[in-house]
């Protein structure tokens, strides 16, 4: 249980009070995150003004915990300038207060799309097809598959050796060389030679 | 401070408490615009926007080694004028008094 929630338990019984308090929290968190994201990207207020298409004097006004006239469109402009997604959702008071309590520079920082690991990692990722099947695939093949192929059973050729791809067979000379290396105790080099001879 | 905040409307009190909680939790560095200089050395105003512009006067410490803030005076701002007038100067004199008599400082009493 959040300490702040505990502290606010009685005060929040009053509807007008809790909404006024929550408004203030929201304004504080938006302004703080805009400043944190700008600093994370090493931008000046002038550069942010250029990126959002706003006049420079407007940025310090918006980067102020007391600014309250937010519009979704203004927030979208910031989201685009920072290359992050904007998420607007309704929340319970306890969640809002918990977030307010946990506010920190680190908790507010967000990677831009280029640094968004979920989108750029090389490992297997899960995608869901039209019929909500879980399909696993390697990132490197995604671009080759059409949308419709993701909704059916996918039997992609050449994905892994286990699916039947034939590995090139090393020549007898290469195998002999590898055996000699292994006998001389240098097993890692032997493996390397085998792989090389096999064309891996 | 307690008497001053007791006279505020409910909505103003909620906003003030939110700002006080933010200051207590996160200090004056992370949140932009939470504390503004007043033009008087060591005296800051906690800015709370609303129908009544609340500007309680605050100082850091005043002990040098502790991370704390002290409310010195409840004030508002109307048409760019402080009420009471010269609130920052008055707060500075309270701060001096507090340094001379640290026992006069007490824990913050929240008015909800």
Task: Outline the secondary-structure elements.
The complex is a heterodimer of chains A (200) and B (112).
Chain A lengths: L2 H6 L6 H26 L4 H8 L5 H5 L9 H11 L10 H9 L3 H4 L8 H4 L4 E4 L5 E4 L1 H4 L29 H12 L3 H11 L3
Antiparallel strand pairs in A: 1-2
Chain B lengths: L1 H5 L3 H17 L8 E3 L6 E3 L6 E2 L2 E4 L8 E5 L2 E3 L2 E3 L3 H14 L12
Antiparallel strand pairs in B: 1-2, 2-4, 3-6, 4-5, 6-7
**Widest sheet of chain A: strand order?**
1-2
What structural class should be given to the helix and strand makeup of chain B?
Answer: alpha+beta
What's the total number of strands of chain B? 7
Overall residue-averaged pLDDT value of chain B? 91
- Gyration radius of chain A (Cα, Å) is 28 Å
Q: What is the C-alpha radius of gyration of chain B, as a whole number of Å?
A: 13 Å
Query: Which chains make the largest contact?
Result: A-B, 27 and 21 residues
Quick structural summary:
The complex is a heterodimer of chains A (200) and B (112). Chain A is mostly helical. Chain A is built from eleven helices and two strands.
Describe the structure.
- The complex is a heterodimer of chains A (200) and B (112).
- Chain A is mainly α.
- Chain A has helices at 3-8, 15-40, 45-52, 58-62, 72-82, 93-101, 105-108, 117-120, 139-142, 172-183, 187-197; strands at 125-128, 134-137.
- In chain A, strands 1-2 form a two-stranded antiparallel sheet.
- The longest helix of chain A has 26 residues, at 15-40.
- With 112 residues, chain B is of the alpha+beta class.
- In chain B, the strands form 2 sheets. Chain B has a 4-stranded antiparallel β-sheet. In chain B, strands 3-6-7 form a 3-stranded antiparallel β-sheet, with no helix packed on it.
- In chain B, a hairpin with an 8-residue loop joins strand 4 and strand 5.
- The longest helix of chain B has 17 residues, at 10-26.
- Chain B is globular and about 35 Å long.
């Amino acid at each position: 249980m959040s300490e702040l929630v505990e502290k606010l338990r009685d005060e929040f019984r009053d509807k007008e009070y809790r909404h006024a308090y929550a408004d203030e929290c929201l304004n504080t968190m938006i302004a703080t995150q805009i400043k944190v994201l700008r600093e994370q990207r090493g931008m000046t207020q002038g550069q942010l003004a250029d990126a959002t298409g706003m006049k420079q004097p407007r940025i310090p006004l918006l980067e102020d915990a007391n600014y309250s006239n937010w519009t979704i469109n203004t927030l979208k402009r910031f989201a685009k300038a920072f290359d992050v997604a904007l998420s607007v959702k309704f929340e319970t008071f306890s969640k809002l207060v918990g977030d307010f309590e946990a506010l920190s520079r680190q908790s507010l920082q967000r990677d831009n799309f280029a640094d968004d690991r979920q989108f750029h990692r090389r490992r297997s990722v899960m995608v869901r097809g039209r019929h909500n099947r879980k399909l696993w695939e390697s990132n490197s093949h995604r671009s080759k598959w059409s949308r419709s192929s993701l909704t059916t059973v996918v039997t992609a050729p050449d994905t892994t050796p286990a699916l039947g791809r034939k590995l090139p067979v090393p020549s007898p000379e290469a195998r002999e060389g590898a055996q000699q290396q292994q006998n001389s105790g240098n097993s890692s080099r032997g493996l390397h030679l085998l792989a090389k001879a096999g064309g891996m | 401070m307690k008497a001053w905040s007791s006279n505020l409307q409910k909505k103003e009190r909620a906003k003030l408490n939110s700002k006080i909680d933010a200051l207590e939790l996160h200090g004056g560095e992370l949140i932009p615009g939470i504390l503004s200089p007043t033009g008087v050395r060591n005296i800051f105003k906690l800015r709370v926007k609303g129908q009544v512009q609340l500007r309680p006067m605050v100082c850091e410490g005043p002990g040098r080694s502790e991370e704390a803030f002290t409310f010195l005076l409840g004030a508002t701002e109307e048409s760019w004028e402080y009420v009471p007038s010269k609130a920052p100067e008055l707060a500075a004199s309270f701060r001096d008094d507090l340094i001379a008599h640290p026992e006069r400082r007490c824990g913050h009493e929240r008015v909800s």
